[in-house]
Backbone:
């Protein structure tokens, strides 16, 4: 057990988890002093009928939904935040219920900043620590088991006019309540279930193996890895497995707690850059880069990677594997999980960069764009939490292997 | 009968020597920021990527010392001393307490470990803060002997990453500018 000389940990999100968790929302709102919430969601969630499920859960209560905004784009957009804030104020709402994935919850966090602190310029609050006051009540209802945004103090919102992704970091951005109800992920397509689960897995793995780890986040990370690895394939093969979906939702939330307090490393560094340069969904990047991040750092934290074998594969495999081989075995199991997800989703789950295609079947990451990705990665803050340093050449070395889907040649990793 | 003397007010003592040590290190770093921006291409590239109104207040909580560095009207990096009053600060980077500052500036803890252990509080643009930390690492490589720097940075640059010529030329020029202003 590595105990840091000093660390800080904070998670004050009330979590309501279970098969009828949504039904608790009216009472929860009442306790927060709110009667007229605004629902923020996206077209996919609305189209899947999840807002109807939510409304049915609130039926017969005193809660009156002030407005529903269902047009959040796949990437949170500062313009949308301003538009939603105006609707919130015009309709006299007093709380926000965010129903969706990371983009929706981040949009709700951005909206909450503006409607609580006033002003019409979200930019004023960008960066770390700029939000210094308590915001309006926010209830997060995740509809994917991946981002863990319901448990984090961060929101990432894009400003397309200036081609920027703005990070907002403050403890006041933690939602008041997270509702984990498996009905909310039931309609999620298998490929999205796969990559969002691997996103959550990456949060937990990086929280456990990177530099800001601490015992409290470790405990959350290990349980998250176990819940995700034990359930993701079952849920994809059997979409009606509500116990499995609840387990994934809890795994994602735990991973969110872990990485919100331990941060993440190079898998996210390269993933953010790939998303920025090629608009690849974040979870897809995570599932591809995760084994490479572990391989790259193995000379630094192989002992920690070895410990992941237990939650990934169970006691029997852990005991049967010689100590010196456990780290490599853990990486092999993650690669195999990606392969199994690839097979279970009809080859939709990408195993390497060249296998990522958009809806029109067009390849999303061209080999020529790898230098641009490496360049963008150089400016990402998550790099600081990675055990080993990376420069442009190191990023290119990892990207080239991830493009082809071949394991990293660890002899070429520069050691500090 | 309770007398006021039974409940004396306790004023915390000052850690004067530690404060002076950190103040000196910050003075050196502040001047080195300015010098490196003129003589080293790596530092110059980092500073060039920062916004035109960049003004950093790097300080130890709660009462200092401070190091104020920013861009002047011509876009050149300038060390503005230890008093942030009257400056339009765009990036605050605070070490949470003096003991953490001592750990960092005696190289018992690398800047990355300090970040990982929540020693620093950032108020401002995160990518710019990352740039500042990268420059600090670069300055450690330039100013200090390898045996000390290796304690403070994650990976000491190999020859292929920073040629000895660049390192020694930058070291010499930064030291000259440090002392001559």
Residues:
């Amino acid at each position: 057990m590595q105990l840091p000389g000093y660390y800080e940990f904070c998670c004050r999100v009330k979590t309501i988890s279970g098969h009828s968790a949504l039904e608790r929302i009216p009472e929860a709102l009442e306790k927060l002093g709110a009667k007229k919430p605004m629902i923020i969601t996206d077209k996919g969630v609305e189209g899947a009928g999840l807002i109807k499920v939510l409304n049915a859960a609130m039926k017969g209560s005193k809660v009156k939904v002030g407005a529903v905004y269902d047009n959040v784009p796949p990437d949170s957009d500062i313009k949308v935040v301003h538009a939603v804030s105006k609707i919130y104020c015009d309709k006299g709402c007093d709380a926000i219920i965010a129903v969706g994935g990371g983009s929706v919850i981040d949009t709700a966090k951005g909206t909450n900043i503006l409607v609580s602190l006033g002003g019409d310029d979200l930019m004023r609050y960008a960066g770390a620590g700029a939000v210094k006051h308590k915001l309006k009540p926010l209830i997060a209802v995740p509809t994917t088991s991946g981002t863990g945004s319901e448990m984090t103090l961060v929101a990432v919102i894009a400003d397309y006019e200036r081609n920027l992704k703005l990070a907002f970091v403050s403890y006041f951005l933690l939602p008041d309540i997270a509702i984990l109800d498996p009905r909310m992920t039931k309609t999620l397509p298998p490929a999205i279930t796969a990559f969002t689960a691997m996103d959550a897995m990456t949060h937990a793995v990086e929280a456990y193996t990177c530099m800001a780890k601490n015992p409290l986040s470790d405990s959350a990370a290990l349980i998250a890895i176990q819940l995700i690895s034990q359930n993701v394939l079952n849920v994809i093969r059997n979409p009606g497995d509500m116990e499995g979906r609840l387990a994934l939702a809890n795994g994602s939330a735990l991973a969110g707690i872990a990485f919100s307090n331990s941060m993440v490393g190079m898998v996210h560094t390269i993933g953010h850059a790939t998303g920025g340069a090629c608009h690849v969904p974040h979870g897809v990047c995570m599932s591809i880069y995760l084994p490479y991040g572990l391989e790259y750092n193995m000379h630094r934290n192989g002992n920690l990677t070895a410990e992941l074998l237990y939650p990934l594969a169970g006691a029997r495999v852990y005991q049967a594997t010689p100590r010196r081989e456990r780290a490599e075995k853990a990486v092999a199991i993650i690669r195999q999980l990606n392969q199994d997800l690839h097979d279970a989703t009809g080859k939709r789950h990408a195993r390497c960069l060249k296998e990522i295609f958009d809806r029109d079947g067009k390849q999303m990451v061209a080999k020529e764009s790898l230098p641009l990705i490496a360049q963008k990665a150089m400016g990402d803050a998550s790099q600081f939490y990675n055990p080993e340093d990376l420069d442009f050449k190191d990023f290119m070395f990892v990207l080239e292997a991830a493009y082809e889907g071949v394991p990293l040649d660890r002899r070429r990793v520069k050691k500090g | 009968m309770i007398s006021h003397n039974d409940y004396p007010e306790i004023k915390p003592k000052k850690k004067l020597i530690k404060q002076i040590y950190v103040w000196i290190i910050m003075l050196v770093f502040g001047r080195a920021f300015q010098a490196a921006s003129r003589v080293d291409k790596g530092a110059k590239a980092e500073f060039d990527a920062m916004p035109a109104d960049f003004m950093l207040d790097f300080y130890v909580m709660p009462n200092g010392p401070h190091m104020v560095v920013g861009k002047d009207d011509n876009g050149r990096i300038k060390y503005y001393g230890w008093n942030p009053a009257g400056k339009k600060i765009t990036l605050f980077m605070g070490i949470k307490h003096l003991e953490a500052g001592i750990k960092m500036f005696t190289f018992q803890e690398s800047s990355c470990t300090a970040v990982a252990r929540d020693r620093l509080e950032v108020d401002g643009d995160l990518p710019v803060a990352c740039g500042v930390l990268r420059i600090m690492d670069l300055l450690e490589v330039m100013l200090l002997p390898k045996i000390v720097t290796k304690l403070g940075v994650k990976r000491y640059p190999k020859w292929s990453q920073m040629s000895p010529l660049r390192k020694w030329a930058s070291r010499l020029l930064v030291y000259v500018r440090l002392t001559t202003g």
